Amino acid sequence: MPKIAKETLLKIYRNMVRLRFLDDKINELIASGIGITQHSTRGQEATTIAACAALEPADYVMPYHRGWGWAIGKGMDPKILLAELLGKGTGCCAGKGGVHIADWSLRIMGRPGVQAAHIPLAAGVGLSVKLRKTKDVVLCFFGDGASNEGNVHEGMNLASVWKAPVVFICENNLYALFTPNIETTSVRDIADRAQGYGMPGVIVDGNDALAVYEAVRKAIARARSGKGPTLIESKTYRIHGHTAMDRFHLGGYRPKEEVEEWEKKDPLKRLRERLVGMKTASEAELEEIERRAKEEIEEAEKFAKESPYPTREEIFQDVYIA
Amino acid sequence: MASREMTYAEAIREGLREEMRRDERVFLLGEDIKINVWTVTRDLYKEFGERVINTPLSESGFSGAAVGAALTGMRPVVEIMYADFTMYAADSIANQAAKYRYMCGGGEFKVPVVFRVAGSGSANGGGCHHGQSLEATFIHFPGLKVVFPSTPYDAKGLIKTAIREENPVLFYEHKLLYGVKGEVPDGEYLLPLGKAEVKREGKDVTIVTYAWTLHKALRASEQLAREGIEAEVIDLRSLRPMDKECILNSLKKTSKLVTAEEGTKMGGVGAEVAAMVAEEGLQYLDAPVKRIAGAEVIIPSSRYADQMVIPQEADIVKGVKELF
Quick check: A40 pLDDT over 70? Predict the structure, then answer.
């Protein structure tokens, strides 16, 4: 594996820590009775964060429902994100989008609420990049559940036919809601399906941030050079349930031992050990990153809670451009 | 101003060509649009090259791709070959294009996309998968605009405005209108979205209609005139937003409302017109509202049977006379 710059490694670690704390904070707020929807990303931080670390600022991200890694990874301030989740006017969607996080200035496209609705959109953003003759790429995330939607078939075929600069990343965490994908999905490796679209299919250990970064970096270089899309399947696991409402994820639809086994592969712990092991960073440096991340998320909570709701007038704006 | 006679299909093509010459962000995509069964986009690829894209059969996919392109600086014009196929594209249109601006980014995004719903309406035994009138489906969604021109003049003026519009627009075309000829002025003109037009003046009854049924209503009005009833015929042209003022102003004069459309009655365009009038203009009426609409059956795939379930000129004459 080629050497990754220290700056990049620390950025990945910092963003994974920030995401973990943000995820924990939201779960804490939910437990305290505040109504927020979150599809926890604990255990899956490596994929979205490391993938986004391989992007340039002008590149696009097409998010999906699980977690906020694509937002943190692409540069969104957690306080703006948390304010949005609380429905506040200071949020990135003016308090009207909620989980449908987006930010045009960061090229974070809207997080869809309909599974795989964004796969054709990603192909279209890629087509637009080509027609406008820029060199941007599109990173498009989705889950193993969404992989069975017809839109994935249509969108990937379009992206391939157009040689659109899109990198599709499927986070395969083995379950769609409360259903194991062995009951619903024709292949064990979703990357196998890439063959049907004439694009490379790559499997990566989704709990290994550096492996993800390297795979995505290669696919981005390929896309940017005009060779078209790649499908990367990131093998990973969600430690928590589908949402905070999921009471069945421990010993219900999946064995407790399985969860415990995956907890041992915690991507954050793994990266930390490697950074220390490779002497990329000292304990003290990493502790400082963790301390500051914790502080930042506390500040975000304060900001979000203190922010005002949008006015009634604002709630009725933006349906049409006048 | 000098004008030329041309067909509805030619008028739309001319509008597309002018807008593509004016703005290089405008591009076309859809199934078989280089040769094109409807002739509307035929041969435009010879002038515009890669800006005319034949897509795979993927209505949801290419409609969604158009949304993605519109969000990132392009102005796509999509052709959906038959109105029936909009059901495949419904998520991309109604859940994505319609919602994006409001839901995402606090008004930072815009979706300047036109969905040309080609081959709408019933003809030639096309039946229930190639002959439905589904425009009422999409008037239910805030965020969308819906237009349905009935003449070459309106078609050209409206397609040009739709392309320049910053919001997503569904632009319906009736398959029987493609060959209809009309005068189109030389030089550029634009028609506003949201404006109906009185296509025939009359004092006794208002017929609110659009598209192919408009032509039936105009012929029915000639018949009615011979029998002493002067009908005012309003062509809605735009279904969302709807020109309430034009309808209400007419009713102040005529006091009788008839709606006529090909789509089925329940939840149809006429239902919306009637409900709006009940809320805002009931005082103008001196008779019940009469809705003439497609029958509540599946459109038979039969050249013999299909026109029995679609309102004809005689049905409009009969419907109007029931109010007198």
Answer: yes
